[in-house]
Amino acid sequence: MDDIIQENEALKKRLQELTAEAVNNETILKRTQARELTLLRADSLAQLLRAMVDGLRESYSLDAVSVVLLDPQHEIRHLLVAGGDRPEEFKQIFFVDSLISLAPQLAALHKPWLGPFVGADHPLLFPGVPNLKSVALLPLPRKDLATGALCFGSRDPARFTRHHGTDFLAHLGAVAAVCIENAVNRARLMRAGITDFLTGWHNRRYMQQRLKEELARAQRRDGTIACLMIDIDRFKSINDGYGHLAGDNALKEIAHRVESQIRSMDTAARFGGDELAILLPEANAAEAAKLAERIREAIAAAPFALTPQIERTMTVSVGVAAVCPGRLDSDLKAVADRLLADADAALYRAKALGRNRVQVGAG
Prior knowledge:
Blueprint: H1 2-40, H2 45-59, E1 64-70, H3 75-82, E2 93-96, E3 113-116, E4 134-142, E5 145-154, H4 167-192, E6 202-203, H5 204-221, E7 225-232, H6 235-242, H7 244-259, E8 267-270, E9 275-281, H8 285-300, E10 304-305, E11 311-312, E12 316-323, H9 332-352, E13 358-360
Parallel strand pairs: 1-2, 6-8, 12-13
Antiparallel strand pairs: 1-5, 3-4, 4-5, 7-9, 7-12, 8-9, 10-11
Helix pairs in contact: 1-2, 1-4, 2-4, 5-9, 6-7
C-alpha cells in the first residue's frame, strides 16, 4: 500500500512539473508571438533594429541582446544614413563583412546554439556587459544561408543550456530575418528610384528630370538657371589609402557641408562616384560663382574625420555654368545637356589649373 501511495505522490509531482512547464511554454509562446508582431509592424529599418535589441531585451528580461548583420557592401548602413539615422548610434548592432570576425560559432550557425558564455569566443558579441554566464546565438536564415545572428546573453548560467529546446528561438530567428529583408527592400524601393544611398541626396536621373522642369519654368519667366559641378580633389587617394569606409565618411561630410550653404529651393545630386551637382533656379553665373566659392571655403575650412583616428583636410574643384532659355528654345533637353556640358567643362579647367578653385563656364 505504501508503495502505491509513494508512486501516486511521485506521479502527482511529475504532473505538477509538466503542468508548470506547459504553462511556462505557453507564456513564452505568447510573449514570442507578441514580440514577432512588433517586429513585423516596424515602419522602418531603424525602428526594426531598435525593436530587435531593446524590445527583445525587455520582453525576455535579458541582460544583453545584440544583432550581427552581414553587410559587406555597406548597403544596410547606407540605407540607415539615407533614412536620417547614424549606424554608429546602434551600439548593439554589428555590421560585418564576415560573420566569423565576431565569434567563430557564427560562421557555421545553422540552428540556435545555447550554452555557457565562453571568454575566448563571446566577448565581442556583448561589449561592455560583464559577468554573462550563458548565451543563445540564433541564426538569421535566408535561402539556406545565415545573413547574421541574433545574440542573447544572460547572467543566469541556467538560462540557456544545451538541454533547452530551441524551436521557439529558431522560429524567432527566421521571423527576424524576414523582417530585416523586408525592411531593407522597403528602404531600397523608397530610395532606389531617385535617391543616392550614401549621401541621401537625389541621384543623376532625378536631377536631369528636375533640370528640365526648372528650365521650362525659367523659360516661362524669362529667368536664368545655374548649375555647379563639384569634384572632390584626389578622392581616389582616400579610398586607396584609408579604405572605402573612410571615403564614405568623407562623402557624407562633404554633402553635409554643401547642404549648409545651399538654399532650400536648390537641388543637390550625386552625379557619380565623387562628382556632385547643384541646380540653382533663379540664379545667374555670378551668383552661382559666389555660392561655389562659399562651398569651396566651407569644405577646405576644417579637416575631415575619415576614421576615429585619422583626420585629413580635403578640397573640391567647382565648375559653374548658367543659361537663360529663350522663348524659341523648343528642345529643352538640348539646353539641359548644354548647361551640364558647360559646367563640366568649367570643372575640368578648374582641375587642370591646380584644383581647389572655382571656374565659370563661357556660357
